[in-house]
Amino acid sequence: MVAEDDEKQAELVRRYLEHEGHAVTVVGDGLAALAEVRHREPDLLVLDVMMPRADGLDVVRVLRAEHRELPVLMLTARSTEDDLLLGLDLGADDYMTKPYSPRELMARVRTLLRRSRRGAQDAVSAADPALRVGALVVDPDRHEVSVEGRSVDCTPGEFRILAAMATEPDRVFTRQRLLEELHGFDRYISFRTVDVHIMNLRKKIEPAPRRPARLITVFGVGYKLTDPARNASHAS
């Protein structure tokens, strides 16, 4: 969720986040931010400090008093150390001053979401780190993949892509985002590298690779990993 009263800034952030594959809700004041967080329970809040009705500092103060643990990235035109420390002391997870680089903002969003997902996974089950998307199981600790009980051999790059997507089933991952996951695993990487890995994964995890049901192309955006059995149930 993005809480920003400057419509141009809000639209810029929304576009960048949607390009990364996120669903985005935008609000323009502090009270609306509180109401939408309570209603929608977003994964992350990008929060401007200077807003009408309730400023960003008040929003963070209330959210933490309600024991809501969603990551909060604050944006502000203020740049003094006191302002920075106040925001962090109230419970903000990160802080950027305006003007800021949208690319840096997206990098910080990715970092906060990864940190949040790791914490949630640890809280759910420290004993079983496996990621499950229907009959597909990805075990990051053992570096193992299985589908419908059958073991699947993956290259390091294929495993990295599958593990990243399994942390967020049904989220659309852009090719750029998957490229970042491959960094360090493939010496020469490009969008074509991502496409090749996806094609090879489909041969390994799909009953009919030419008609994929698990690893889906979202045209013009990227790819998503989904549970075909659940989708069939919803459709029926």
Automatic annotation (TrEMBL):
The keyword Transit peptide does not apply. Pfam families: Response_reg, Trans_reg_C. One of its GO terms (molecular function) is DNA binding. It comes from the Bacteria. Residues 1-113 form the Response regulatory domain. InterPro entries: CheY-like_superfamily (IPR011006), OmpR/PhoB-type_DNA-bd (IPR001867), Sig_transdc_resp-reg_C-effctor (IPR016032), Sig_transdc_resp-reg_receiver (IPR001789), WalR-like (IPR039420), WH-like_DNA-bd_sf (IPR036388). Residues 128-227 bind DNA. Signal peptide: none annotated. CDD domains: trans_reg_C. The modification 4-aspartylphosphate is found at D48. Keywords: DNA-binding, Phosphoprotein, Transcription, Transcription regulation. The keyword DNA-binding applies. Residues 128-227 form the OmpR/PhoB-type domain. This is DNA-binding response regulator. It comes from Streptomyces gelaticus.
